[in-house]
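Input set for joint prediction.
Command: fold jointly, output tokens.
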Amino acid sequence: MKRLLPVAVAAMAAFSLGPFLWSALTSLKPADELFRVPPTWIPRSVSLDNYRDVFAQRPFARYMVNSLFVAGLSTILTLAAGAPAAWALARLRLRWSAAIEKGFLAFALFPPAVLLVPLFVAARDAGVLNSRIGVAFVHAALNLPFAVWSLTSFFRAFPADLEDAARVDGFSRAGVLLRVVFPVSAPALAATAILVFIFSWNEFVIALTFLTRDELRTVPVGVAMLSGVTAYDIPWGQISAAVVVTTLPVVAAVLAFQRSIVQGLGAGAVKG
Amino acid sequence: MGSRSRYLWLLPSAALLGVILALPLLKGLAGGVPGIGDALRDPAVGRAAWNTCLFAGISVPLELGLGLAFALLLNRDFRGRGLARALAILPWALPTAVMALSWRWIFSDSWGIANDLPRALGLLEEPVPWLGRPGTAMAALIAADVWKTTPFVTLILLAGLQGVPSDLYEAMSLDGAGPVRRFFWVTLPLLRPSIALALVFRLIQALGIFDLVWVLTGGGPADATRTISLEAYDSVFRHLEPGRGAAVTLLAAAGMFAVALVLGALARGRGDA
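tokens >
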């Protein structure tokens, strides 16, 4: 058992990292090596042409800006609405707090299949298609249940004495929240913000259906649309470079914040 | 502060959820009512429902099994555990639609590693057109989904395992119970709420899968991987029949609601026993 442990861990790591690594290796191959049969595993010659081309020949930088804007705005909206709600649920002994928490959680369950048509029809009728701000608001609503869920369990563990002391010092409830609770909770808020940002950065269905003009597209949709006319036209080198550029920030964030991701989700999960 | 005004803290959240999700969903689902008879009689809808159930029915148990194994592994003490945990949750955090392209490249007949690796190991002589045949396309879809969402199960179960008090294990070890008995008598029963949570979330998300299918197979070949969400999408965006799309959505939502109710009842019933 002891000796099998490293083998099992290595197998798990290979499984988790495999597809990303294969795209990373592919992205470094020059055009003539890319379509060699059988494929080379390690590139014989390394080239950055695919990275240059995806930025030079496609509006990839534009997609990145759109994604940063949508994910950034939706993260701010999610926290601005979610943090006060989570604090109220954790602290104010609301009579319906258990039912309200369940209600929030129910919204987290809706999968793309259910959201797709109703949200598109509503947005079309309201005339907010092709608006990045509109997509940011929808992402905020979609990520709100998760944010409230993870922040509520964090605020429950927050020492109430600190708040009481600040109240005695004459702070209003809002003052306590802004001046005491949120600054002290910065790590938890940051962890939630990172995950919410990642969710929005990755989101596909709403971005695909709401933003039809190419200059408004976000990265996942833009990358998914990078295909050629036939299977042989698909620019696999550029796609692989795009996969790496899109996922690398997420990889970095997960490596850096592993502990808070495991704890943040865990706190909510154990309770739920 | 009055007891009513305390609810003001919830107002921004409630407004966001109400205006952006609840109202459109209610309106959209109500809009599906007139087309529901036609949708129920439509063989294409039945086919998509079957494909969806097949996909969820195979992928979710695989994810639960693998996720449990990963969680047990990551709950042990070893050097580099933090890095191993980060790697294990990684697929969950990556964009599904983008990684679906990665999987399409993996499953490519001529240049894909899904053919080259078995060939190098002497398991395959002829390359398999993974995404070109109905059965193998579904298998490829399931493989990609297992890769992508097992980490979610791992995360939930790992959190559950961290809540299992270690003195329970020590007590059982003193009683002479081996690791297998400890697993079935302590770990599994205490993990049941976490397993139920992971199961409900995964099952409903799997039944509602969209991104992965849209990018990896597009529902093909010969509609073999066409899921219910693709059917709803195509109703609106390809056939320009939003009424049919709404009806398909309503059926899907009703099915998922039923699944959630049954699972909830099962979990509660066994919890009382």
